Amino acid sequence: MQWTKVLGLGLGAAALLGLGIILGHFAIPKKANSPAPQDLDLEILETVMGQLDANRIRENLRELSREPHLASSPRDEDLVQLLLQRWKDPESGLDSAGASTYEVLLSFPSQEQPNVVDIVGPTGGIIHSCHRTEENVTGEQGGPDVVQPYAAYAPSGTPQGLLVYANRGAEEDFKELQTQGIKLEGTIALTRYGGVGRGAKAVNAAKHGVAGVLVYTDPADINDGLSSPDETFPNSWYLPPSGVERGSYYEYFGDPLTPYLPAVPSSFRVDLANVSGFPPIPTQPIVCALGCPVNVSVYNRLELRNSSNVLGIIRGAVEPDRYVLYGNHRDSWVHGAVDPSSGTAVLLELSRVLGTLLKKGTWRPRRSIVFASWGAEEFGLIGSTEFTEEFFNKLQERTVAYINVDISVFANATLRVQGTPPVQTVVFSATKEIRSPGPGDLSIYDNWIRYFNRSSPVYGLVPSLGSLGAGSDYAPFIHFLGISSMDIAYTYDRSKTSARIYPTYHTAFDTFDYVDKFLDPGFSSHQAVARTAGSVILRLSDSFFLPLKVSDYSETLRSFLQAAQQDLGALLEQHSISLGPLVNAVEKFEAEAAALGQRISTLQKGSPDPLQVRMLNDQLMLLERTFLNPRAFPEERYYSHVLWAPRTGSVVTFPGLSNACSRARDTASGSEAWAEVQRQLSIVVTALEGAAATLRPVADL
Amino acid sequence: MQWTKVLGLGLGAAALLGLGIILGHFAIPKKANSPAPQDLDLEILETVMGQLDANRIRENLRELSREPHLASSPRDEDLVQLLLQRWKDPESGLDSAGASTYEVLLSFPSQEQPNVVDIVGPTGGIIHSCHRTEENVTGEQGGPDVVQPYAAYAPSGTPQGLLVYANRGAEEDFKELQTQGIKLEGTIALTRYGGVGRGAKAVNAAKHGVAGVLVYTDPADINDGLSSPDETFPNSWYLPPSGVERGSYYEYFGDPLTPYLPAVPSSFRVDLANVSGFPPIPTQPIVCALGCPVNVSVYNRLELRNSSNVLGIIRGAVEPDRYVLYGNHRDSWVHGAVDPSSGTAVLLELSRVLGTLLKKGTWRPRRSIVFASWGAEEFGLIGSTEFTEEFFNKLQERTVAYINVDISVFANATLRVQGTPPVQTVVFSATKEIRSPGPGDLSIYDNWIRYFNRSSPVYGLVPSLGSLGAGSDYAPFIHFLGISSMDIAYTYDRSKTSARIYPTYHTAFDTFDYVDKFLDPGFSSHQAVARTAGSVILRLSDSFFLPLKVSDYSETLRSFLQAAQQDLGALLEQHSISLGPLVNAVEKFEAEAAALGQRISTLQKGSPDPLQVRMLNDQLMLLERTFLNPRAFPEERYYSHVLWAPRTGSVVTFPGLSNACSRARDTASGSEAWAEVQRQLSIVVTALEGAAATLRPVADL
Questions:
Q1: Nearest neighbour of A397 by CB, restricted to B21, B268, B622
Q2: Residue B462 sits in a domain of what CATH number?
Q3: Which residues form the Transferrin receptor-like dimerisation domain (chains A, B) (predicted)?
Q4: DSSP sequence for A679-690
């Protein structure tokens, strides 16, 4: 009988075990069947913030600015190699990196025949010559690689004529001279930097028969009036009296010979005779006490040169086909310690810190992060523009945002951000969590809001973001590709100076010591920019829900609408043009954006499917694209964004409408100019309605 | 002691149970943690194929063609209601449906003053008048809603002049007349349909000083030469002797007053005086035995009319933001039984079958299916074009493919498909599984390949797809939005007839009885088209991996390249233009497309993550977009696709290149025309390189 008992016990035990197994497998739900979707990890963020080192940035800058690195120069090429080396480093590099070379048209003065400006005496002899170079006050302004101050792309020529002072060389300035009865034909116009773009001065002058243009820097504009050697660099932040600003005088951006095509060797190149956008008359920036008459001799040369971009990528772990793009240009006019190497130094430190975490296996971002070092920016955003022409579709379809850090520190008082509304929220989030340099315990955000603020109907008092023009490499991304973009830097306390820009801008005095002594001793502002940019990058690349807030566009649209109603409403009514459809379109956008925001909040409370969130993120990423219209501004080059195209009209509203009204204002009803006003209005209405349509629940038509 | 035994047994039992539970929960992996991703269900496909009913299609057609339904007429509006009713049916309707109305410029003859063409005698008196209407042979050709034959958009006027016969009204025809010494100034040109587009005949004529154009249908072109009443409808398939083809004579497509803008009430409208694309001289289609001189009196009127599209949607279950779009136009010239109601009848049956499965809860597609009924196609693809202008971004970002079925049955011999290469594979898959109408046991595919075939270097003998011009509503989708598209219909056995098109095309003889007796008795070809379209829709909407095969573009590119090398290579070399970069670009595309195909195959063998497949599907869906360039053809309206824009050059290669070479051929080296050749070549190279870049692994730059 023992064996039946044993058998019985055995069977019972097996049955219990089996029952347990069955219960355990089927009846008790597994906690999380799929792992939680990859999301922003605050510990990683903390680590990155802590790792970004001010002293390493300083040492980066020292190396980068050690020698002049003009676009396509041998030293510029050396820096390409430096970047590749750092980005391929086995311990702190990226997944992969490579250089990509374009053949672009640049412009240089002649080494054999320097540009000269001479004052001519009554007998025709030279009584005074302007300095051809800046004074060698620190030992770094001499040397064959310090390019003479010149106006890039200005044509060669040797005009001689009476000197006329034309203020900033704006159209009004020349009109004013005409009104005063001054004969402009054949004169040399002396203008000062500022007010209008460099190239525009020459264009305006030539229209009035002027034969040559000189441009100088007025100490009042740049130096708070100071000019003696004691009061200026190397003794202070200010520009020495011999300082001259270089720059590109080309009207557009991108390689001049290959509009809309990448400047690869095989691309069609426009005939030099047919290139538009070059200054029409010899132009030369100077510093000089002038009398007249004046000989101007410009011997600039156009040259086809190789210019490289360097690109490196950290591949996204989950959504590798979504790119967070971070760019800085590499080329300078001379030493370029501020412009652009203060930004390159930050770029190197950011990529080092992120690359180190990557190589250690600690972290891989959800989305891909692409680092870009652009070439030939100083000549007209050339490297970045050619890149967008070459990879137009790929970038437009996949880029979440473009972050530009050109100059990282103009001055060390406060953060300054330019960008489109959807990026506002991620910048606010980032800066609230980072300590501001300087005394006290403020966040970057709390310091920032004291310098740049606005009263938002939605948020109350917040820091204000500037808008994006064409001042740096974000231009092709926002205007040509319609990618939400931003530019980040530290900048001045405007109550302390009225300098138009940091005084040694584009001069041979923009050196490491200048930065180290007068701009950001300790490099804590450089570090603040690195942390801000790093935090923004991580939030964009790692957050499950993309931190782009499209409903923040509603404020902009509402503000543009109100300006149009207030300042153009009566005029439009006189011409039987109603703003009603625009009102409707703005309201529709506001409503759809708000509703989408609600849907996002609801989703965020649950455990949404990654595919669902992906679909939503696509709506957010692609919203900026809906404002592009390549047929809106046929007379412009690249500009296609109906909210941010250049505005020449005075009313701060939709640029197409503002500009068209400005042109039509004094014309008769029914003129072509008034038809263009209607067309521009319809273009905006269609864009806003189309934008709203993309924000609707995706399966609603 | 019993209780210790009981206790011991109890504890042991609990331990065993607990152990079992632990083992079952943790040690045994759950089989499929997430449910299998939604994929094409062959049973659903079978069901749909079986449900599509030829007789229901027939009854649909009877109702649709019962009365004339000219765009914007009351009957056209009735049909809008009919569609809405069907699509909102609780048992067989869609998720939602609505109509969307535009205000568009159409053109009609005057009811009070019909267009007339008279032959004038020597004294100026009318000796013979052409018939103003077609003969009422079935009782359906009379009635006030049968619009008189006319040339839509031709201007009013009453030219009188000597008649000149100008064949097809092509440029060569007028040149030939000039060569013969015939004085064209002030004449009336008699032309026949075919050869060149309708509007082009008037444009060409006007260039030579012709005062008015008449267009007739040559029985040789339409009727295999037959013309007596006994040999023609209602006794046969052929056009009765009084038949006249109506049509739009507008050069472009879309509403003429709102290019690139949707024709909503508030949109900017071009001044009538500034509209381009209307025929410049009075034009009238006729049937007449003519002598000369001839009075032509055209009293057409331009009118702003409301035209509706009807849209209905079945929301996707998994990827609702991916649209499979299926369209057919609703408006006709008269009864339109073939054009377009043969297609509308199919549309209604397809949406009924799919709607029924939906409402029963049997099925919901993975992606969204959108059904569209377009208005005012006959006047120039207006409804579909306005739709693409209104929702440009939304459609471009989300539409997987556009399927057009305008006329579903031209004749009942074989399938005919036009489309871009990526859709070839899904059409092949669909048609291999559907039985062909007619005797025998052939599949549609096996019947099709006997009529239209080509020798593919990759596949061997396969059915050939035609390319997409601007003949129907696919035009804005492929040319303006860059969405992979197709047009499906049944068509003629060309060994049996050389009719340019089914003989009663655009006449009052295109009636239900015509279809029922002579085109497709039994409606089995209608059913075959419905099944083909239905299967394609389901495969596109339900397959986990999108059945768009981008590597099938390689053959097209290779073929275009070879034609360029053979027929243009020498000419280009003479002008120092190398095709090398084009060769490289084609090879790069081929390589990347092939590699992508490999990656897909590998993925398909495993259980890939839906997000991974989504990223891949995005690459496939968006490939067609990479061939769009809105700046490639500035003189064209909407055309932006660098592979399929209109080709006027004789060499069958990239149209921009073919056309530019044609224009440059007889000009000197260095001319603007040769610069344009280079520009067009670079445009293609850039597009192909850009396309290849989007096919690379997504995290490779």
A1: B622
A2: 3.40.630.10
A3: 577-696
A4: HHHHHHHHHHHH
A301 touches chain B (CB under 8 A): no
What distance in Å separates the CA atoms of residue B634 and residue B539, rounded to the nearest whole number?
Answer: 37
Q: Domain holding B557: CATH number? A: 1.20.930.40
Q: pLDDT tens, B424-462?
A: 999 999 999 999 998 889 999 999 999 999 999 999 999
Residue of A nearest to B267 (CA): A682
| Number of helices (H), then strands (E), in chain A | 20, 19
DSSP 8-class letter at A192: E
Give the residue numbers spanning the domain of B667: 550-695
Q: What is the band of A294 on the pLDDT scale with cuts at 50, 70, 90?
A: confident
Beta strands in B299-366 (DSSP E): 301-314, 319-329
Q: A31 and chain B: CB distance < 8 Å anywhere?
A: no
Is the same domain home to A642 and A529? no
Contact B47, B360 (CB under 8 A): no
Residue A109 belongs to a domain: no
Percentage above 70 pLDDT, chain B: 96
- Asked if B84 and B200 sit in the same domain, the reply is no
Per DSSP, the residues of B201-251 read HHHHHHHTT--EEEEE--HHHHSTT--SGGGSTTSSSSPPTT----EE--S
Please give the model's pTM, rounded to 2 decimal places: 0.92
pLDDT for the residue numbered B249: 96
> Do the beta carbons of residue B52 and residue B350 sit within 8 Å?
yes
Are residues A132 and A88 part of one domain? no
Closest Cα in chain A to B624:
A393
Calpha distance B547→A130 (Å, rounded): 71
User: What order do you get walking across the sheet with B160-161 strand by strand?
Assistant: B126-129, B116-120, B294-297, B160-161
Same domain, B253 and B390: no
**Of A298, A316, A342, at which residue does a domain stop?**
A298
Contacts of B619 in chain A (CB under 8 A): 321
Q: What is the dihedral of CA B440, B444, B446, B447, to 10 degrees?
A: 70
Local structure of B114: helix, strand or coil: coil
Rounded Cα gap, residues B224 and B502, in angstroms: 11
Please state the domain count of chain B.
3
- On the question of a cis peptide bond just before residue B646, with omega within 30 degrees of 0, the verdict is no
Instruction: Report ipTM (2 d.p.).
Output: 0.90
Mutate to test the interface with B, among A274, A698, A700 (most CBs of B within 10 A): A698
Residue A23, in any domain of the structure: no
Percent of chain A with pLDDT strictly greater than 70: 96
* Percent of all residues in chain B with a pLDDT value above 90, rounded to a whole number: 88
B257 plus B311 within the same structural domain: no
Residues A143 and A122 in one domain: yes
B357-412 per-position pLDDT tens digit: 999 999 999 999 999 999 999 999 999 999 999 999 999 999 999 999 999 999 99
Same domain, A130 and A156: yes
Tally of CA atoms within 13 A in the half-sphere of A509 that contains its CB: 27
User: What is the pLDDT confidence band of residue B18, given thresholds at 50, 70 and 90?
Assistant: low
The partner residues of A157 in beta bridges, in order of sequence, read: A298
Task: Give me the amino acid identity at A571.
Answer: L
Would the pLDDT of B6 be above 90? no
Mutation choice for A interface testing from B541, B613, B682, B688 by most A CBs within 10 A: B682
Last residue of a domain, one of A267, A298, A329: A298
Please choose, from the candidates A159, A214, A210, A212, the residue with its C-alpha nearest in 3D space to the C-alpha of residue A184.
Answer: A210
| Alpha-carbon gap, residue A49 to A530, rounded angstroms | 8
Q: Is residue B283 part of a domain?
A: yes
Binned at pLDDT 50, 70 and 90, residue A32 comes out as: very low
- Residue B313 in any domain: the answer is yes
Q: Are residues B515 and B556 in the same domain?
A: no
